[in-house]
Design brief:
The chain is mainly beta and 172 residues long. The protein has one domain. The protein is built from 2 helices and 8 strands. An 8-stranded antiparallel β-barrel has the order 1-2-3-4-5-6-7-8.
């Protein structure tokens, strides 16, 4: 009886964790698709964990991510704002073996819509900041995408999100 109750409790906990899992691809401001994508699960009390999936980048190892719920105010000058999740990401260590670098991401957990002409609607919905050996290394941001690179014909056109954002091309 005790084993049955314990097993039922464990299965209930696991189903609530996996039911809250979310995956999003990353688009650049120029609409290129980055090869990595986030897979997040909510654990309660504002805590999140998951993986930065590197399979479409050609890596067989994923980066680990963990973080917490936050709200970035609209008037702070940030390109991305609103309720979401901020998390540390072992992306540099996973991809390049660099241990004195940190990639930190903020994600709004809601993908942007894309109209029939391919225009991305709404404000940017993710941003990442880099630090190397204690110094600020740069910022990248873009839009969350409901597609996953490497799945259902979605092809990545860019490397991982740790690169600089590509600006939209202007037609002349």
């Amino acid at each position: 009886m005790k084993k049955s109750i314990l097993l039922l409790s464990f299965l209930t906990m696991c189903s609530s964790i996996f039911a809250s899992g979310q995956s999003f691809g990353f688009l650049s401001p120029g609409a290129g698709i980055y090869c990595n994508y986030e897979q997040l699960s909510y654990y309660g009390n504002g805590l999140w964990s998951g993986a930065d999936n590197q399979s479409a980048c050609g890596s067989s190892v994923n980066a680990t991510i963990s973080g917490f719920s936050v709200t970035i105010p609209k008037n702070n000058g940030s390109p991305v704002y609103g309720p979401g999740v901020i998390y540390g990401d072992s992306l540099y260590s996973t991809l390049y073996g660099v241990t004195d670098a940190q990639w930190t991401m903020y994600t709004r957990l809601k993908c942007n819509k894309i109209d029939k002409s391919g225009n991305i609607l709404g404000p940017p919905s993710w941003m990442g900041v880099a630090a190397f050996s204690g110094f600020f290394g740069g910022l990248n941001y873009g839009f969350l995408y409901c597609g996953i690179p490497g799945k259902k014909g979605v092809v990545a056109t860019l490397g991982p999100t740790v690169g600089a954002a590509r600006r939209p091309r202007v037609k002349r």
